[in-house]
Amino acid sequence: MEELDGEPTVTFVPGVNSKKKQMCFDWGPGELLVCETSFNNKGKSEMVPCCPFIYIIRKDVGVYSQILRKLFNESHGIFVGLQRIEEEFTGKSRKAQLVRVSKNYRSVIRACMEEMHQTTIAANDPASGRQFSSQVSILSVMELIWNLCEILFIEVAPAGPLLLLLLDWVRLHVCEVDTLSADVLGSENPSKHEGFWKLVTVLVLQGRLDEARQVLSKEADANPPSAGMCRVLGDLMRTMPILSPGNTQTLTELELRWQHWHEECGRHLQDGTFASSPPLESLCKVMLGDEAALLAHKDLLSNWYHFLVTRLLYSNPTVKPIDLHFYAQSSLDLFLGGESSPEPLDNILMAAFEFDIHQVIKECSIALSNWWFVAHLTDLLDHCRLLQSHNLYFGSNMREFLLLEYASGLFAHHSLWQLGVDYFDCCPELGRASLELHIERIPLNTEQKALKVLRVCEQRQMTEQVRSICKILAMKAVRNNRLGSALSWSIRARDAAFATLVSDRFLRDYCERGCFSDLDLIDNLGPAMMLSDRLTFLGKYREFHRLYGEKRFVEAASLLLSLMTSQIAPRSFWMTLLTDALPLLEQKQVIFSAEQTYELMRCLEDLTSGRPARAEPDAQRLEEDDVETTKVEMLRLALARNLARAIVREGSLGGS
Amino acid sequence: MEELYAKFVSEKISKTRWRPVPPGSLQTAETFATGSWDNEENHVSLWSIGDFGNPDSDGSLEGDHRLLCDIKHHGDVMDLQFFDQERIVAASSTGCVTIFLHHPNNQTLSVSQQWTTAHYHTGPGSPSYCSAPCTGVVCDNPEIVTVGEDGRINLFRADHKEAVRTIDNADSSTLHAVTFLRTPEILTVNSIGQLKIWDFRQQGNEPSQILSLTGDRVPLHCVDRHPNQQHVVATGGQDGMLSIWDVRQGTMPVSLLKAHEAEMWEVHFHPSNPDHLFTCSEDGSLWHWDASTDVPEKSSLFHQGGRTSTFLSHGINHQANAHQSLTSSWLSTDPAKDRIEITSLLPSRTLSVNTLDVLGPCLVCGTDAEAIYVTRQLFS
Question: Residues of the signal sequence (chain A) (predicted)?
Fold first, then answer.
């Protein structure tokens, strides 16, 4: 076993006093059952009333949020699409597709965040408002991490473009500047606004130099003495060499030009061009990448990764991916300045800058409350072929492990189980086994739901589960006295034993009531009739009744006889069959031939001779026996008379 | 099909229905109802696609549908029908049938009438009863007919507390759907591949006619009647096949069309343009079938994602071709002459599309992926 990666969190269960009483628990797929036992701490049972409840403790509460359900459903579609990418795309277009998929995931997170934010504003009680806003911050952290992973691992941006992407990343996540900008520029006299210099600084820190220049021009207009200085600084901003996507210049050229620009900035500072205006001088220092000047704006940078990107922008804009972790570490150290220790988010981002994917995923798994994020990110990175070598010491690989966890969580939810199916499908090693175990445990309250579950099983040739589900439904139908339904379900499951059981019920009902129920089904059994002998008998026996009803006596008679001679009819039913033969024997014309009559006689003798003599006949049994004996005698008489008539008729036919 | 709006709603949608527009009005469809299933708490909701001139306060996009109101519904919503402009009838998996009333003034829904034990099982030998899901409901003001897993058919009237007529054990298997044929005749489909026609004028619990698929007894899940030709009926089965029936003749379908790969949950003729038919399925697809014969070069035209149909069996009424002009294009059985053009309406396959409804140029469908799709330009 590896050591623990973090302290396990303690959850208090309200109403349960674990100090006084021992607790017991049982694991469920995504939940835990907890209750108090009647034992105290010393292990003695005592009759003190204890907490009367059993608690269900859910690990992953996010699954139960209405808004996050949209995230799960929408990302499920993206996930399923991603699994098809393998066969559809190769080479360059493949990478473009993967980036597109990553952006889709992020836009779903953002949409969710947006909606959650709206709900937070609309929430009228503070408790739920707090809950929503904590969800918003979790989602925004997820998006932040995902975006960085997208830049570093999926786009794999080279030196140059890398910094541009990082700048976009920072701009996307530090977005207070837009409200500030609207605030300042919307005021009557922007340059006198208290947030004016803050705005210019923030824009410079984010590398939005064109905007910074425009804002600065307001100061130049309003304050002619400083117009010259503003123009010089504005020119520096304008001339800063940057890599533009359409430009064909090489990295070396860019570096050379940037070096010149950097020296020019330095010269202005040395010459004291901005000496009379502290804010402008400070801006110039920022543009020189001066660490102390940057750190002076700590509050505007708000976090170390912003500091990192700004610092790189003004000191090493063509940073190579490989050097990133060095700058990241030193930026983190400088920014925190030993005052506070790094938080989980810092560690995750740092691991990303170090290109340590496994560490990123591990830290995320510990820090985030649900598996959605790590499962989807890992799957995407796996599609980028970044995780192949890594195997866990348990189960399958990491991707599969995380997907299984996530899918199990979905199955624990009363309604999201359908999404889980596709995730299990994408786990080659343990997915099927997990699905088999989960799918059988879905409560089936309507046939429609059962049909959906059955479809899932049938598509995956899970015959055992199909049988078990059909059997559950058949049992339910029997309990509800719906024999027709029960028979349909056992036919669907090809469950011969159960079909026999249901057929017996039909026959019993017939014996009791003298008529068949559910004729629409029995008359239309078709080939399904061959499922079990008893079912065949039921179908054929009903056919006999139909033939008899249609006065097709000869066919009816031979069918009746064959039911007995072929041993399809259960022994216990022979007497009923023979009794059914009685009216046929009594018809005016001869129906049973001599040979058939012999057969019937043999059947009757078989039946009567096989009966054991009863030891102590009581009154009721005597009466029953009496009825039986009369019946047998009547049959014998009818058979004998029929035999005589048949012989005479056959003799005369043969003679003519 | 340029504009297809999707909205995720955090519950699996089992039914969607357009509110009927008042007869004779020039209004287009703008309100629809949905019902959810398999949720801890299910809802019947009303949505609007109107008011796109002024963007909503909650920032939803133009053309997006927005929630007007909803109400809790006990159990899964198994079926949903508009009774009239204000009233919606919902069938529940608890065997309960409820009429909800919409108050347009303050945008709320309330329960106006309820038959709590419309469908139930009777256990063997015990008087205790156990509820059975009500699977289908159909309305023809003032009558409401419901069918259920208990094989029972109920006839209700909106103004009567008790069922006007009940046929116990009407079917030995589960009844999946019901539709009016010609008043007072109804047509039901069941889980052993049979269509049964019932006439409420007749006493007793025997159907007046039974039609069935031969052979494998494939369960039928949905049924719709041609809006103008009342003898033409379409059904969808468990194997995804579309069957067209002529209830006047024969006991077998006129044609069987290979369609979806899994259960077909709903089939609808377009109410005012019945040469068009719409189907949706468990396999996550939604199809538009176009059998209009006025496009001569149609056989060479296939939309993206479309496919031609394969006629598997050509029923029994070849003589009907003589009256081509009179019969519906759905009954013609000459595959070379009348190709049906099929278009897939959803961009990518997802989880089951449980329900759809069409009215005028508008189509709405609901899925297990908890999304509602709406388009307002069906024929553009």
Answer: none
